[in-house]
Amino acid sequence: MRKLRAAAARPLIGGGRRKRRVAAAEMAEAPPGAGLAALPDSVLLEVLALLPLRDRLRAGRVCRRWWRLGQDRALWRHVDLSPHRLSSRTLWHLLRRHLRGSLRTLKVKGALCSARKHEVLSPALLAALGKHCPHLGRLCLAEADLRLLPYRSMPASLKTLELSHCEIPSAWFQGTAADALPQLQHLIVCNVPAFCDQHLLNVSSQAPLKTLTLSGTYRVTDAGIQRAAVYLGGLERLVLRHCVITDSAVHFIGHHLKSLRLLEISNAYSLTNAGLACLATLKRLETLCLDLCDKFSPDAVVALCQALPQLRNLNLDGAHFEDEAICKIQASLPNCSFSHTP
Asked: CA-based angle 167:237:313, to the nearest 5?
């Protein structure tokens, strides 16, 4: 574990008012000068949860009581290992000793273009993770080489899969229904250049997604949106950043994605008023973000928003509108929160 660098870990225990009151009362009953030994377990758990991972593991060597507290399930529900450069050996050690049935979220940083002897993740490790952590619902992989990790090796319990700066083969997400993640509902793909139209079609046709975020996926085009939109009728949140799409893609979004509650489109410089009008069919839309989309007129924005009865939040950051146009938009949407940063 010496390779773990000290880094601020995410607090893993929720602290409600009632829990803090109980802890304060227990501390007040401790005799003066009693030191850490007099603190109740609930307070020590709060302290351990605030420690960086390396220090938390070292704390278990202090005494038997601290070792027992270090094994508490609450400390290992949401684990962020991404600040650390880990070896496969370290991951196996954590899996055998700490990452058990209580694990809900795991964030891991891999190694891009790694040689086999330096691999951080492997199909065997992911299989063991799925076996020993049956309640793992969210897996976040950063800088991971997925070319040696088949999609079917991902834990079947996953509801959320996040990929950031990863390498994926062309056949990833491809396979039969038996190879798919049966519970997958949320897919976030950020800065994965290889992610393309075929990947989008494969995953959308296999899983009833509710959330889809594509950021920096330059190979996703109008054709990909068109083919995948047929399978995305249950989608509630869609974020498209730095994708190469035009009015044609927005047309299919408006035609098929009628369950959308949040839509964010940014850096889509080809979108025009014609595409914007296609979104008027999204009657459940509550939040609309159009960032750095310069070809929309204020009148088109007003017409769209007035056609969306559930709209409560409108964000037009980066739009180059005159102050008079901004005031017009705000005045026409009395029940909608409006933000705009030029």
From this structure: 130
pTM across the whole model: 0.83
Query: What does each of the 342 residues of the chain score in pLDDT, given as a tens digit?
Result: 344 433 333 333 344 555 545 444 444 454 444 566 777 878 888 888 777 777 777 777 778 888 888 777 788 888 888 887 788 888 898 888 888 888 999 999 887 655 455 578 889 999 999 999 999 999 999 998 898 888 989 999 999 999 999 999 988 988 665 567 889 999 999 999 999 999 999 999 988 999 999 999 999 999 999 999 999 999 999 999 988 889 999 999 999 999 999 999 988 788 899 999 999 999 999 999 988 767 788 889 889 999 999 999 999 887 777 888 888 888 888 888 888 777
Q: What DSSP letter does each residue of 5-51 carry, written as one string?
A: PP-PPPP-S---HHHHHHHHHHHHHSPTT--GGGS-HHHHHHHHHHS
Contact 181, 209 (CB under 8 A): no
Query: In the structure encoding, which two tokens stand for residue 114, read together?
Result: 């790694």
